[in-house]
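Form 7-S
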Amino acid sequence: MPVENFKFVSPGIFINEIDNSQLPAVAERIGPLVIGRAERGPALRPVQVESFSEFVEIFGNPIPGGRGGDIWRDGNYTAPTYAVYAAQAWLRNNTPLTFVRLLGDQHLNASSAGYAGWKQNEVHASNAGGAYGLWVFDRYTTGDQSAGGGVVGQMTASLAAVFYTDTGTHVMLSGGHSAVDRADPAAAAQDWVGAATGQGVLRGSGSTNSDWIMLVKGTNGDVGEERINFNFTRTSDNYIRKVFNTNPTLLNTTITSGNKRGYWLGETYDSHVDNNAGVISYAAVLGHSSHDLSKQGSDWNFGTKRGETGYFIAQDLGSATNYKAEHVQQLFKLVSLDAGEQLQKLAKVSIVDIKPSTNDFDPYGTFTVAIRLLKDSDKAPVYLEKFSNCSLNPNSSNYVARKIGDMFSDWDDIEKRYKHYGAYPNASKFVRVAVNDQVAEGVADPRYLPVGVIGPKRFRTYSFSGSAVNRDNKFFVSSDADIISGASATALLTGSQHQFHHVSGASSNIKFQHPALSLRVLSTDDDLSNPQLAFWGVRTNRSGSTRFDESIADMVRIGFPGTSATPAAVDSTYLEDSFIFTLDDVIRPASGSASGSYQYVSGSRKGNYSLSAQSGSSYLLDNAKVNRFTTVFAGGFDGLDIKEREPFRNTKFTNGTELNNYAFYSVKRAIDAVADPEVVEFNLATIPGVTNTSLTEQLIKMCEDRADALAIIDLEEDYVADTEGTSAETSRMPDAEKAVTSFRSRGINSSYGCAYFPWVQIRDTLANQLLWAPPSIVALGTMAFSERQEELWFAPAGFTRGGLSEGAAGIPVTNVRLQLTSRERDRLYSANINPIASFPAEGLVVFGQKTLQVTPSALDRINVRRLLIHLKKEVSRIAATTLFEQNVQATWNRFSGQVEVFLNDVKAGLGLTDFKVVLDESTTTPELIDRNILYAKVFLKPARAIEFIALDFVITDTGASFAD
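Output:
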C-alpha cells in the first residue's frame, strides 16, 4: 500500500499485508468435439462432459450392436454407437469432451424426399401395405348372440395393436365367423378360409379371451405364409409381442437379406385392452387411416419433437352443476428440454402437497412439482427432481417458471444458429415450464391451483348403430377396408362392401375407442397403507398389479401420425383429449368402503356429488388430503428411420443435400451448431463412421473457418460395416490402393484435417464384446494419451505414444481389419493417410502423423498443427485481457511479457526450438494507434518430430581404430 495511504498522527509502527502469492486463473482445458448417435441424452446441441462416468450418466453406455429383440418398443441396439466409443477413448486418458448426439430432423424447406422419420406406404388397397389396426370387441352386455339374432346392447371395440405391412403383405384374422353360434365352440374355432377369412371380417376367438389366429399372406395371396396363434396374456408363450415380428429393420431390403419380413408389430395396448374390452369375444383387422386417406396411420415422416405433459388445470371455483372440465382455466405444462422420446420413457411428473393460501395477504397457494421415475410405484416413489413451494404468482420468488426454468432454444435454418427464448434459467435437468398467458400476465384468479391435467391427444371415440358405417370424420377406417362380414378378401380390398354386420342381415350398435392411459379409481388401489398417500391421475402399473406396464411406452408415443406438412396437428375432426383428469371428480367413500378411502368418478363434480362439490376445494386439499396426482410426458419423437439399423449409414447419404435427405441435414446441422468458436470451444472434431465426402469435407471446412481445431475423418474404400448393405464381407474389406486413389481424387489440401486407415477391432469392456470400429476412434484415443503422457505438441504416433496394443487408444484394440504391407503403408503415407500397422513383435501401432496438407510445410504434421492451434488459442486469451487498455508502450510491454512467459514454457516443454515477439513502433505504427489497433508479430520455430531414422552400420577390419 502506498505510504500516502497510511494515516500518521502520532509516532508508531505501521504494518500492512500485501499478498503477491495469488495464482492467476488457470484457463479451462479444451478437448475434442464428437458427433454421433448415443443411447439417450440431449440432442443436436453441444454438451460438455468432464469424465466418462458423467458421459454415461447423460448419454448412456456404448452399444456394440448385434442385439435384436423388441426394437419397436425397446429401441434400436442393432448397430454400434461409434461416437460413444470415441468419447470413451478420449475420456479414459483426458478431459473434457464435447458431444453432439444425433437425432433425425428436417430442413424448414425440405422436399418430400427430405422428410425425417419414416413412412410405410399409405394406401390400403390391394397389395399396397400400410398400417392396420387390430380391434378387439367385448361380448354383448345382455342377451345372446347367435346365428340370425339381432342387436342386444352395445359392443365396445378397442384398438389393441397396430401392424405395419410392406407392399404385397396382408395381415388378416382367421377363425370363427361372427355368425357362428358361440354356443358351439367347435364351429367357432374352425379355420374359415376364402369368403370367411380376411381383413375387416369379424372373427371369434373360439372361447372367452382365448387365442386368435392371424394369417400373414404374401404377394401371391396364398394363405399359409405364416399362421400365428396369439393372445394378450403376457405370461403365455403366444403373447402377441412374443410371436410376431417386432423388428422393423427386417423389412429393409437394402440391409436385410434372407430373413426379410413383410410386416412388423408396432404398438400394443395391453392394459387398455384389459381395462376396456371386458370379456373379449371377437376381433377384426381394419385399415388404420382416415376415411379419405388424408391422414395415414403409417406416415411418421416428420422431425424430432419434444415430449410434454398436457396442461395442468385449476380447480372449479364456480357452480358445480355448470362445471365443464374442458372450460376450466389452463395453468401451465412441462416440456422436455430436449427433443426425442427419452424423457417419456424415463420419467413422469406428480403434483403434490397442493395447499390453498392460509392468509389474506397472499391469495396464492403453493404446490410441489416432482419428477419421478416412470417405472416406480406409488408405494415407493423414486424422485429424480423436486421443486417445492411453487406458486403461480409471477412476482414471487417461488413462481413456478422461476423455480424450474422456462428457457429453450430453437434452431434457425436461415441463420444456422440456435435462438434462445425464455426469462428464467433452467434449474431442472429434464424440463422447462410453459405458462399460460393469463397466468404469466397475472390476470388469472390467484386462488387457482393445479388440481388436474389434460391427457394426450388420441383419435376420436365414436359410436354407430344401424346397418351401415358412417365413415365421415372417423380416423381408422379407410374407404377400402371397412368392417364387413362374409365378404371375400378380394371384395374387401376393392371396396365393394361398405357395411358392418355381426350376423347376416342384422344391424349393429358398436362403440369404437382408441387407447387411453389408465387412471387411479380407488385410493386403496396398490394396497396403500394410508389412502391419503394415493397419487391420483395416471397409473403406470399393470391393472391389478404393482408391476410396471410396458405398454406405457406405446401409449405415450405420438398416437396420431399425420401428413408431413402438418404432423400430429390438433384437428378436432380427428382428435380428442384422451382424458381430462381433475381432483374435483374425487368422491366420498361409498357405503361399505374402507375408512378414509376415496374414489375417482369422472363427471361427479358436474353431478354435484364429488368431495369438492359438497365440501369445497379447500376441504378436499387440506382436510381430506386428496392433494396429489400424476401424469406422463407424451409426444416426443426421435425423427429417425426405424427401418434402419444405422439411421446415419453412409449409403443413406448418397446424393444427399440438406433439402432432400434428413440424415444428411441432421449431421450438417450438428456441424453448423458448433461452427461459431464463441459458442463452444474444442480443438479436435470427428464424426466416427461417417465417410460421406461432402460431410467430412464440411467438417474440415468448419475447422478451417474456426482455425482452432483439427478434424479427424474416416475414408471411403475402408471397411464397410454390415449395417450399410447386404454384401458379403469379402466385398466389404478395406482396399488400400482404392483408398489412396479415391482420396487423391478429392483434392483436399488442408492442415486442419487428418485421416487414418484401416478399421480396427476393439473390445467393449462393459459388454465384453468385440466389434470393428472406424480408425478415427483410436486416432482420437492416441491423441488423448499423447497429450496426457507428454504434451499435445508431441506426435501421437509410434510405439511410445501410438502403441495400440499397449493401450494408447484408451480402449482395447485387438486387431486390424487389413494387415498392411510395407508398400501399402508407403502408398498411404504418400497420400497423407496415416496407416495403422501391425508388427509381429511390437503389435498394433499408429504409424503416421500427417495432416491433409499437400503443400510441404511444418503444418503438414499433426503435432505442429496442434501446437499452432494451442498457441493461437492461449495467446488470444492473453490478448483478450489487453482489449480496451491504453495503446501505449506500458501496455505493449505487459502484453509482450505475458506472451514471452507463456512461449518460454512451451519451449521448455520441447514444443518450440525458438521464438520472438515483436511489438513496437515497427508493428504498431502511429497510424494504427490512431485507428485503435495494436499489432504484434510472433515468430515461431516449431520442434519437429523424428519420422525417419537413417543408420549406417559400418563393418571394419579387426585392426581398425574407431577413433579414425
